[in-house]
Write a structure and sequence with these properties.
Elements: E1 2-10, E2 13-18, E3 21-27, H1 32-41, E4 47-51, H2 52-57, H3 63-72, E5 77-80, H4 86-94, E6 99-102, H5 104-108, H6 110-120, E7 124-131, E8 134-137, E9 142-143, H7 148-157, E10 162-167, H8 179-186, E11 192-196, H9 202-209, E12 216-221, H10 223-227, H11 232-240
C-alpha cells in the first residue's frame, strides 16, 4: 500500500478544503512545485494533484501548474479536476503527467467512460467521491442518482484495474478514515482501491494497512502532511511493515 501525498491547487496555490467546501479553505505557504519536490525527497512514490478550480469550472484551469509539477519531479504524477473530454486528457498526458483522474463526466456518461478506459487504459483512473453511499460530482456540488456499486460494476466492465474512493464527509477533517464505508465496497470487486479522506496520523495509516489484503493499494494524504500531524517517512515505513498494528 502506497502513501500518496496530495497537492490541491486553487488559483495556482497549494490549499486544502474541508469536506470539499470552497468556503472552508486552508492555504499553505508552500508552492505546489516545492511541495512535490519535498514529498519526493521524503520517499513518496506517487504524487496526487487536484485542480480545484478545474473541478468546479469543468476544465483543467491549472494545467500549467500541474505540468510544472510533473516536470519538476522524477516520480509519477496523477492529476484530476475538470478533465471532461479526450482532448484535455491527451494534452495533460503529453505534458508529462503520468495518469489522469476522471470523475464527473465518467460517472454521468457511460459512453465517455467506456471510450477513455478503452483508449487510455492505465493512463486514466476513475474516481468516486461519496458522502456515505451517495455519489457527488462537479466539485462535490451535485449529488448523482447512481448506486456506487453499479458505478463500480460499470468501470470494471470497461477495463478499470484501479479506482480512487474519497469519503467526502471525512476529507480535510483529520477525523480518521471511513473504513466502514470502504469495507462495504472494497471486498466486492477484484480491482485496486486508493482511499482518501480523514487520515491524521500513523495510527490511521496502520488501520488502513489492515485492508491491503482486500485490495487497498494506496491512501491519499493531504492536510495531515501539511499540518505536521503525520510524518511521511513514518507512514511509508508503516506501510512496509508486515504487522503494522501494535
Amino acid at each position: 500500500m502506497k502513501v500518496i501525498p496530495a497537492i490541491d491547487i486553487m488559483g495556482g496555490r497549494t490549499v486544502r478544503l474541508e469536506q470539499g467546501r470552497y468556503d472552508r479553505r486552508l492555504s499553505y505557504d508552500t508552492a505546489p512545485v516545492d511541495a512535490a519536490r519535498e514529498w519526493e525527497s521524503r520517499g513518496a512514490e506517487l504524487i496526487h494533484v487536484v485542480d480545484l478550480d478545474g473541478a468546479r469550472d469543468g476544465w483543467p484551469v491549472n494545467l500549467s501548474v500541474v505540468s510544472a509539477i510533473a516536470q519538476a519531479v522524477n516520480i509519477p504524477v496523477e492529476a484530476g479536476g475538470g478533465f471532461r473530454n479526450e482532448a484535455d486528457i491527451e494534452k495533460a498526458l503529453g505534458t508529462g503527467i503520468w495518469r489522469v483522474v476522471v470523475g464527473s463526466k465518467a460517472l454521468e456518461e457511460k459512453d465517455f467512460a467506456r471510450n477513455i478506459l478503452e483508449n487510455f487504459r492505465e493512463q486514466v483512473i476513475p474516481s468516486l467521491d461519496a458522502d456515505k453511499d451517495r455519489l457527488r460530482i462537479h466539485g462535490w456540488k451535485k449529488p448523482l442518482d447512481l448506486d456506487i456499486f453499479k458505478a463500480l460494476d460499470r468501470f470494471v466492465s470497461y477495463g478499470a484495474g484501479e479506482v480512487i474512493y474519497t469519503a467526502i464527509s471525512k476529507d480535510g477533517t483529520l477525523a480518521g478514515p471511513d473504513t466502514g464505508s470502504l469495507k462495504k465496497i472494497i471486498g466486492e470487486f477484484d480491482i485496486g482501491f486508493i482511499y482518501a479522506g480523514g487520515v491524521k496520523n500513523v495510527e490511521h495509516i496502520r488501520e488502513l494497512k489492515e485492508l491491503e489484503h482486500m485490495g487497498l493499494t494506496g491512501v491519499i494524504v493531504g492536510r495531515a502532511l501539511y499540518d505536521g500531524t503525520l510524518d511521511l517517512g513514518e507512514a511509508i515505513n508503516a506501510c512496509k511493515a508486515d504487522n503494522p498494528m501494535p
